[in-house]
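Example 9 (inverse folding). The structure is encoded as follows.
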């Protein structure tokens, strides 16, 4: 997968080359990138679909004009470089979809209209007046706060602004993801969706003597067959990583919405401890980035080569 230049505190809101690409007339997928593991028209070689909904680093001008924080502060909510960590997945057999727009602009791991009425100057329609725990925490489809609790916006937004973000980024992303899932299921009779994320190192330490390196979220077994969670856990532990399940992250909208084991669609969220690969102050990669990337490539290869006959039952 192509890499995009990270945003620095004193840099423009987005890399100029990428901004030009997003604004290019006729661009069919402006808010995300898809990489298939097979040539156009060919069946996918494996049932694997990888998603990275929070690694986007494009902060559009309309967002930043309304923001109270600078781009560097807002980036602390970003799953920095996760798309790069899984960048070779398509070569190894997994279809990949990765967001380009920032998670703070529109959160693709939320229901589209999971909005906080208090953030808007006008009254929201009933279908957009969400009362979820994520909205209460300030982390709805349009986030109110960054991870440290700082409020993102200097003014209230309009529902028209929210709807434009949903139409521009959220709906097309999920339409493309659904297409990848349909292609994998048509070829293999089932599909494995891995939703990739990263977590602050502080969250990885919460309630534990030693921090977790990975947290596997399968919604306590509701989103995928146990054999999938167990296989990923076993592969990571064999590499020397500490792995937890469902705490503090059991899975978000993606695993909840798409994870339907009874329908042969298995979804698993994987959270990576940022301390393994990222300086969380500067948002620059650490020396451990290369090792982690290599290990995730080995994990991907193992999943691509595994016998998943049990998931067809």
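The amino acid assigned to each position is listed next.
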């Amino acid at each position: 997968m192509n890499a995009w230049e990270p945003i620095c505190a004193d840099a423009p809101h987005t890399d100029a080359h990428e901004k030009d690409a997003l604004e290019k007339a006729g661009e069919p997928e402006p808010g995300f990138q898809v990489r298939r593991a097979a040539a156009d028209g060919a069946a996918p070689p494996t049932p694997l679909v990888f998603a990275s909904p929070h690694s986007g680093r494009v902060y559009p001008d309309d967002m930043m004009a309304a923001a109270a924080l600078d781009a560097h502060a807002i980036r602390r909510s970003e799953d920095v470089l996760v798309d790069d960590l899984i960048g070779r997945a398509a070569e190894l057999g997994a279809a990949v979809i990765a967001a380009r727009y920032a998670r703070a602009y529109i959160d693709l791991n939320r229901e589209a209209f999971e909005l906080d009425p208090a953030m808007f100057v006008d009254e929201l329609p009933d279908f957009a007046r969400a009362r979820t725990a994520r909205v209460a925490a300030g982390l709805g489809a349009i986030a109110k706060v960054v991870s440290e609790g700082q409020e993102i916006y200097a003014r209230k937004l309009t529902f028209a602004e929210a709807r434009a973000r949903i139409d521009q980024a959220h709906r097309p992303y999920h339409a493309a993801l659904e297409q990848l899932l349909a292609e994998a299921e048509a070829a293999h009779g089932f599909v494995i969706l891995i939703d990739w994320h990263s977590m602050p190192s502080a969250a990885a330490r919460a309630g534990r003597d030693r921090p977790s390196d990975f947290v596997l979220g399968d919604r306590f077994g509701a989103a995928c067959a146990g054999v999938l969670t167990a296989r990923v856990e076993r592969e990571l532990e064999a590499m020397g990583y500490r792995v937890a399940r469902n705490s503090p992250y059991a899975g978000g909208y993606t695993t909840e919405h798409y994870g339907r084991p009874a329908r042969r669609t298995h979804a698993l969220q994987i959270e990576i401890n940022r301390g393994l690969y990222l300086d969380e102050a500067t948002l620059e990669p650490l020396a451990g980035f290369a090792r982690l990337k290599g290990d995730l490539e080995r994990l991907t290869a193992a999943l691509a080569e595994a016998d998943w006959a049990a998931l067809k039952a």
